[in-house]
Amino acid sequence: MKALVYEGPKKVAVVEVADAEIEQPTDVLIEVSSTNICGSDLHMYEGRTSVEKGKVLGHETLGKVVEVGHAVYSIRVGDMVCLPFNIGCGFCANCERGFTGFCLTANPGTAGAAYGFAGMGPYSGGQAEYLRVPFGDFNCLKLPEDAKKRQNDYVMLSDVFPTGWHATRLAGLKPGDSIVIYGAGPVGLMAALSAQLQGAAKVIVVDSKQDRLKLAEGMGAIGIDQSEGDVVGRILEETDGKGASCGCEAVGYQCSDRHGHEVPNLTMNNLVKTVAATGGIGVVGVFLPQDPGAKDALAKEGAIAFDLGAMWFKGQRIATGQANVKAYNRKLCALIESGRAKPSQIVSHELPLQQAAEAYQNFDERVPGWTKVVLKPRA
Ligand SMILES: NC(=O)c1ccc[n+]([C@@H]2O[C@H](COP(=O)([O-])OP(=O)(O)OC[C@H]3O[C@@H](n4cnc5c(N)ncnc54)[C@H](O)[C@@H]3O)[C@@H](O)[C@H]2O)c1
Ligand SMILES: [Zn+2]
Ligand SMILES: [Zn+2]
């Protein structure tokens, strides 16, 4: 089958690889029809992770079931399904409490497994013609009748819509709150959409990319362009000098200043400054335990100089981590089906899998207009 593989820093290619197949009786095999490129793929693409050469990337996948293992109970050939980026077993101590992003079974020795991802187990990714889905009954979200026609909406249930929603839940957003979101990439935009759906009174989104800020404004948010300077002052102005009720980090360890230089502690310290006393901070942007490619010694060890004193003084709370997609995807699917949510509004490009390498390059360079790419292996 054809699949997109990592070949080295800034080098990916669509090549012929061994077919995905059923390996366990609990597996399901999917013919992939939509698969996104994610900001998380870019950390690997840029050579800033330990991902091995030859790994098939992709963890945002939707497709049709073409085969099921003999122990699969609820999923049938022909079902249209969307897969959470995390692989959960459903029966471990973390999965049973809803923490499916921290499954103890699927990637022994680590809490958490995912498709096509550095350090998240041996699983191949979905930027391919076919995908093997372990623990198929648990991981497949069966989609409604209109799934084939509205794939660009439903495929967002694999990651960015639940992850944006998760960011707002980690932040403790309540109706009538104000919220500041750092990052207007797909995750930050989905956090803004989620905050609107949950009744936020004011949504503020920070980025330096005009095209992405425009999308946030289209959702009713206030865009703050980092490249114009004084981000903190302008957010305080919007929030009566107190800061927002809560905040989200949707950028991660490669966050940069207004000149494009990486400053790994920038968003976290800005959140401390721009979230009000007692407010919650939800961090879904990725931070890694080691980052050998970082410029400063602290960041190489996965550490940052953090304003803990200011945070303690303000009595803020921080919550972090991978989104437990399964905790949200069924309900968010209902919001899509009913027409209340249209996450496809962030999609800028729909391309055949064959054009994936070019798409990675443009998305990585944040070329204006390249907000979210959906690849179509069957096109
Ligand atoms: N926790 C999870 O489960 C989960 C899931 C998906 C993605 N992620 C992570 O979320 C992050 C965002 O993902 P994405 O797909 O939106 O990525 P993206 O790279 O497309 O978007 C990041 C955005 O942040 C902006 N940015 C950079 N520095 C900034 C700063 N100092 N202040 C404000 N904005 C800044 C960039 O211009 C860019 O638009 C990544 O780290 C990704 O790995 C986490
Ligand atoms: Zn993703
Ligand atoms: Zn588990």
The CATH homology group name of the largest domain: Medium-chain alcohol dehydrogenases, catalytic domain
CATH class of the largest domain: Alpha Beta
Count of individual domains: 2
- What is the count of β-strands? 15
Structural class: alpha/beta
Just name the CATH architecture of the largest domain: Alpha-Beta Complex
Low-confidence stretches: none
Into which percent range does the helicity of residues fall? 10-25%
N→C terminal distance: 14 Å
List the helices and strands and how they pair.
Layout: E1 2-8, E2 11-16, E3 28-36, H1 39-45, E4 61-68, E5 80-83, E6 130-133, H2 136-139, E7 141-142, H3 151-154, H4 160-171, E8 178-182, H5 186-197, E9 202-207, H6 210-218, E10 222-225, H7 231-238, E11 244-249, H8 266-274, E12 275-283, H9 297-300, H10 308-314, E13 317-320, H11 329-337, E14 349-352, H12 356-364, E15 373-376
Helix pairs in contact: 4-5
The site of nicotinamide-adenine-dinucleotide (NAD) has 33 residues, from helix 1, helix 5, strand 9 and helix 8.
